């Protein structure tokens, strides 16, 4: 599984609940269409986090890099409905940091090691 991480802060005056509800709508929309495998939305608690990471942490799970590429293309220029979810969210956020990681050991690596 590939995990796409987004950390962000909200622009001044943005309602945190409005942001999280909008993010959940977009991610649920993508999940229902099997464009993503899963997601989570978290908010920093008790001010325990590195200072350069944002207040919100959104994690999106993809089974492959190809699925991720297709989903990003779908959201950015492939679907007016997805863009209608995404555009208001993009206007709410600032200070975005991104990261990608994957489960380890990977399934393909496990198969190779067993067959060696």
Sheet with most strands: strand arrangement: 2-3-1-4
What is the N-to-C succession of helices and strands?
EHEEHHEH
The gross shape turns out to be globular
Give the rounded overall mean pLDDT. 88
- Give the number of domains: 1
What's the N-to-C terminus distance?
23 Å
Structural class: alpha+beta
- % residues in beta strands: 25-35%
Uncertain spans: none
Helix content: 40-55%
Count of DSSP-assigned helices: 4
- Name the CATH architecture: 2-Layer Sandwich
The whole-angstrom Rg is: 16 Å
Classify the oligomer.
Answer: single chain
Quick one: biggest sheet? Answer: 4 strands, antiparallel
- What fold name goes in the CATH topology slot? Alpha-Beta Plaits
Report the CATH C-level class: Alpha Beta
Q: How many β-strand runs? A: 4
Structure description:
The mean pLDDT is 88. The chain has a single domain (2-115), classed as Alpha-Beta Plaits. The chain is built from four helices and four strands. Helix content is 46%, strand content 28%. The protein has a four-stranded antiparallel beta sheet with strand order 2-3-1-4. By secondary structure, the protein is α+β, with helices and mostly antiparallel strands. It starts with a strand and ends with a helix. The chain has helices at 16-32, 65-78, 80-92, 107-115; strands at residues 2-10, 38-43, 56-62, 93-102.
